[in-house]
Amino acid sequence: MQLRWGIVGGGNISECFVRSLFNKPENHKVVAVGASSEQRAQQFIDKLNFPAGAPKAYGSYEDLVKDKDIDVVYIGLLNHLHKRNVLLAIAQKKHVLCEKPLGLNEAQVTEMTKAAKEAGVFLMEAFWTKFFPAWQVVKKGVYEKEFGGLKLFTARIGFSRHGANKMQLQYGGGDLMATGCYTVMAAMWIFGEKPSKIEVSGVSLADGVDERASVVLTFSGDRVANLMYTGECDLSCSAEVCCENGRYLIPEQLWAPSKLIKISWDAKVPRKEEVFPLPVEDHSAYKYPDASAMLWEAEHVHHCLQNNLTESPVISHKDMLELSQVLDEILRQSGVMYPDSIL
């Protein structure tokens, strides 16, 4: 089964996603690209030099989703454009993989998941992090209690080079939605539940977007996640999962890790470092580090559709809704209010 993809948006993230698909041509083919103009769509196509022949270029997203040759749509637009274009695709009975965050609040995510269920189509938020082998090893180890019961989760992520659009309120920007959401998603996934308590200490810019915050999430059994995110400086972007008898360390690039270190509290047990290969070694053509691994989320979509699933067992509608609820509360405590015009 070869999935026929329509690409909505001609930015860097869409380019990375498309390049990743080139690594598994038997399962994936891009048949159409839509941008804000046909010229921009054609420029995107010309730049990528599609190995299986050039896809069609559309000058509007509405026209792209009507293409009967498309099975599934990838949406790589700015945050404030997600809901409208997800709903456009669903209305045309297209399956959808949408970049994170799926919506700007719980109400938007509820509307999209409801529409997908009613239409009988697949909808998934593109948190590619969950498909990295390093995180899957951690998730399995916690579930099987390799180091005993889970106690504490810590994560921090920070960049001083966010794109201007990602930090503007009218585009659904801010640091939580840009990168901080990775730490929240990972904590909820590892604990396997929604936190019972959320405490935020943060700083917002004069225009209302959040610039940095420290977040404490409390889970059942008084277990805690300590999270930090910022858009004003570069951090190590690491995560630690601490259990009764040891811990898992993601030393860098927590959103897309290739390395995992296991550390036992027993001094006689040597620490174990694992390095996981990516789909390709050379990433010089990619705009973002290790972006060939976007193939893994596409492969998951392929698996789900091949098995006639309309929800991912890894990123379910419930997962997406609960995450949106927690992000809503973090934004509320941070004093961030998106304008009604984009909600």
DSSP summary: helix tally: 9
Lateral arrangement of strands in the main beta sheet: 8-9-10-7-11-12-13-14
Order of helices and strands: EHEHEHEHEHEHEHEEEEEEEHH
Write the CATH architecture name of the largest domain: 2-Layer Sandwich
Kindly state the number of beta strands: 14
**C-alpha Rg, in Å?**
20 Å
Number of domains: 2
What this model shows, in words?
Helices cover 32% and strands 24% of the residues. By secondary structure, it is α/β, with parallel strands linked by helices. The protein has 2 domains: 3-128, 3-Layer(aba) Sandwich (Rossmann fold); 129-278 and 315-342, Dihydrodipicolinate Reductase, domain 2 (2-Layer Sandwich). Strands 8-9-10-7-11-12-13-14 form an 8-stranded mixed β-sheet, covered by helices on one side. A 6-stranded parallel β-sheet has the order 3-2-1-4-5-6, sandwiched between helices. The longest helix has 18 residues, at 317-334. The relative contact order is 0.16. The model has no long low-confidence stretch (mean pLDDT 96).
